[in-house]
Design goal:
Structural class: mainly alpha
Helix content: 55-70%
Number of helices: 5
Strand content: under 5%
Oligomer: single chain
Radius of gyration: 14 Å
Shape: globular
Distance between the termini: 29 Å
């Protein structure tokens, strides 16, 4: 098994799958499935797909979405190799990444 395959195998339930530059489409599908499986998964998925929630007066439900926005970014960043992370480090939302 190659080092890259070891990294993919390590991307189990405790860590999102790692991105390989040649496999974006399957990685993005696996990443979204991983995001959905996390606590607040539907909210995290929504943040990745639609961008962060922004509003000055937030309800409790909306506060959960803001928290999920942060979790969405973290979910994606944990699945990136260092050289790819450097490229997206300045992005402020999961949608931008």
């Amino acid at each position: 098994m190659s080092t890259q395959q070891d990294i993919y195998a390590a991307g189990s339930e405790n860590h999102p799958p790692m991105l390989n530059k040649e496999n974006y489409v399957p990685w993005s599908s696996r990443l979204l499935r991983y995001a959905k499986s996390r606590p607040n998964g539907k909210l995290i998925y929504n943040s990745i797909m639609n961008g962060p929630y922004t509003d000055d007066e937030l309800t409790e439900k909306e506060l959960k979405q803001v928290e999920a926005d942060d979790q969405a970014i973290q979910t994606i960043l944990l699945g990136l190799l260092e050289d790819i992370y450097v490229t997206v480090d300045s992005c402020e939302t999961a949608l931008e990444i």
